[in-house]
């Protein structure tokens, strides 16, 4: 699985630090999953489209959502790939969120928006700009499937290549903000369609031990 290569390619292309990375998948083997990279940076808004025009505002750089078509047969296989990447990029932890289907009686608009965001399709513009630039050809089908069957989303905040590199106080990290693979933790059983949060703890700090 080329998850790490996908993230590193985007880091080289954008030349911006990451705030976080999320991965979302529906509970059906070998379906595409979506990797969303949340960048730390701002775009200048000018009075006119010329170099010496006055800057009137700064807008956050939109996140990048990418569809990945790598083969996976079980959720545990996909989660082990995410665990390895989060571990290697020096994340403090990895959070897994199991979300129920939002197409059901009693669901909220917030649930549907969170699902759309997980798969790179937030239908809301901020100051005229979409918060996510998506390359997700099967996005509508994935959201429809997630709306009926639920989905799983993983979130981690990398130190290597991330905005957290200057403030990380983690005893498990190498000097470059990374860890040597593989991740020593194993994937816990997943229950798609439920509402549950699981956190894998990677890091250790003197402050927490004191």
Order of helices and strands: HEEEEEHEHEHEEH
Instruction: Please report the distance between the alpha carbons of the first and last residues.
Output: 39 Å
What best-fitting shape do the alpha-carbon axes yield?
A: globular
Radius of gyration: 18 Å
The secondary structure category is: alpha+beta
Percentage of residues in strands: 25-35%
How many distinct folded domains?
Answer: 1
What is the number of helices? 5
Q: Strand count, sense and closure of the main sheet?
A: 7 strands, mixed
What is the percent of helical residues? 10-25%
Strand order of the largest sheet: 7-5-2-1-8-6-9
Concise overview:
The chain has 210 residues and is of the alpha+beta class. It has helices at 3-14, 75-88, 109-118, 139-149, 206-209, and strands at 18-25, 33-39, 42-46, 55-60, 63-68, 93-99, 132-135, 151-156, 196-201.
Q: What do you see in this structure?
A:
The chain is of the alpha+beta class. The chain has one domain. The strands form two sheets. It has a seven-stranded mixed beta sheet, sandwiched between helices. It has a two-stranded antiparallel ribbon with strand order 3-4. Strand 3 and strand 4 form a beta hairpin.
Topology of this structure?
Layout: H1 3-14, E1 18-25, E2 33-39, E3 42-46, E4 55-60, E5 63-68, H2 75-88, E6 93-99, H3 109-118, E7 132-135, H4 139-149, E8 151-156, E9 196-201, H5 206-209
Parallel strand pairs: 5-7
Antiparallel strand pairs: 1-2, 1-8, 2-5, 3-4, 6-8, 6-9
Describe this protein with a few key phrases:
two-stranded antiparallel sheet, alpha+beta, 7-stranded mixed sheet, 5 helices, about 210 residues
């Amino acid at each position: 699985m080329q998850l790490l290569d996908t993230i590193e390619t985007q880091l080289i292309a954008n030349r911006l630090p990451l705030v976080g990375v999320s991965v979302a998948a529906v509970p059906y083997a070998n379906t595409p999953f979506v990797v969303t990279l949340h960048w730390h940076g701002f775009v200048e808004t000018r009075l006119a489209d010329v170099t010496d025009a006055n800057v009137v505002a700064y807008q956050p750089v939109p996140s990048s959502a990418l569809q990945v078509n790598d083969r996976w047969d079980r959720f545990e296989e996909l989660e082990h790939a995410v665990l390895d990447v989060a571990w290697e990029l020096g994340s403090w932890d990895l959070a897994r969120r199991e979300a129920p289907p939002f197409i059901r009686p009693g669901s909220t608009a917030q649930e549907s928006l969170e699902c759309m965001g997980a798969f790179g399709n937030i239908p809301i513009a901020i100051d005229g700009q979409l918060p996510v630039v998506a390359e997700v050809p099967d996005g509508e089908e994935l959201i429809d499937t997630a709306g009926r069957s639920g989905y799983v989303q993983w979130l981690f905040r990398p130190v290597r290549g991330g905005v957290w590199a200057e403030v990380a106080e983690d005893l498990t990290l190498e000097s470059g903000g990374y860890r040597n693979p593989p991740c020593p933790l194993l994937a816990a059983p997943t229950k798609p369609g439920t509402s549950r949060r699981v956190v894998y703890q990677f890091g250790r700090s003197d402050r927490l031990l004191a």
